[in-house]
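Readers of this paper often ask what the protein records in our data store actually look like. Such a record has a labelled line for the sequence and another for the backbone structure tokens. Nothing more is needed to write down the fold, since each code stands for a local backbone conformation. The remainder of this section carries one protein's record, kept here as part of the documentation.
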Amino acid sequence: MGHLLMVESWVGAMSSLLPRAIREAGHRFTFLTRDLHHYLRVPSGACAHPLLAADNVVTAETNDVPALLRRVERLHEVFGFDGVISSCDYYLATAARLASHLGLPGVGPEAVERAYRKDLTRQALREAGLPGPPSPSRADGRRRPRAPERSATPW
């Protein structure tokens, strides 16, 4: 049975499905959020938000990564996390940095950064000898007068 640290979440379907899937797989989780009230807003007649079924709900500023690293280090000493996850794409980089900082398995922060930034994705594709979609920007970052009309790649 693993103990996961979940950093923020979408309020929609994934925030309901992921906590249930974690529990059904026999694991548990601690939910880390900067604004607990964001998750307390549920439609009239609905039950409590599934994220509130976490073993622990911790409030911390999740947008201040350096401070969060120190806070999560202390939490890890107490709770002993086995992994760090997020269902919110905005916090995937944060989850990767936290997992790396704690020495836990997961996607490396550099890989998440390359996936987020188109310029780094294009560079990684070039270095691997793989084709990528055309870009209206030149290698030096300045825009081309106009994008190519036809590319040899399928894009």
The chain has six helices and four strands. The radius of gyration is 20 Å.
